[in-house]
Amino acid sequence: MIASPDGKYMTPQEYLEWEEHQDIKYEYINGEVFAMTGGTIPHNDIAFNLASALKSHLRGGACRVNIAHAKVGVSEKGSFHYPDVVVSCDQRDRQAIKFIQYPCLIVEVLSPSTEAYDRGRKFIQYRRFQTLQEYVLIDAEKISLDCFRINDKGVWELHPYEEGDEVHLTSVDLHFPISLVYEDIQFAI
């Protein structure tokens, strides 16, 4: 849903100022704003499970873990998105207030309505981050995690994980069983 009822395009600065006064979150892409829809409880729990593991693993170090309400800005001019989990180990993000600009890891929990966008156009936007090393997509309806990792030649490679696998997030050197992400999740029958 486009939030700007008059169809007027916003500058990035107008968006940042306008969004501060809104009751819900909006993503900003090419001058347009899009309302963020609410997720399911399993969606939230999956993001929380991974964010908790990341926070515990990275505690006391130089990295910062944020969830849901932390915005990432591809540049000062946009686009701006709200990933489910984002990690930045870049000193320039330590004092960030409005948005993260130097993520090394971005995680999206997939829903049927956003999966194509998260795998396609959003990933194109995220690849513009020079610091991004991994992009993780987690299925909320079955045990499946896709980790896209940039190799030493600058090519993004897919590393899929399924039930029983151990996941390795190289950007933060975290190993965990995929079951950790799905702890307390009940799938529809």
The geometry reads as globular
CATH architecture descriptor text of the largest domain? Alpha-Beta Complex
The total strand number stands at 12
Averaged pLDDT, please?
92
Largest sheet: 6 strands, mixed
Q: Termini distance?
A: 31 Å
In the CATH hierarchy, what is the superfamily of the largest domain?
tt1808, chain A
CATH topology of the largest domain: tt1808, chain A
Topology order in helix (H) and strand (E) letters:
HEEHEEEEEHHEEEEEH
Q: Which consecutive residue ranges, at least 5 long each, have pLDDT under 50?
A: none
Give the strand line-up of the largest sheet: 3-6-7-8-9-10
What structural category characterises the helix and strand content? Answer: alpha+beta
Residue fraction in strands:
25-35%
From the alpha carbons, calculate the radius of gyration and give it in angstroms. Answer: 16 Å
- Helical residues, percent: 10-25%
Number of domains: 2
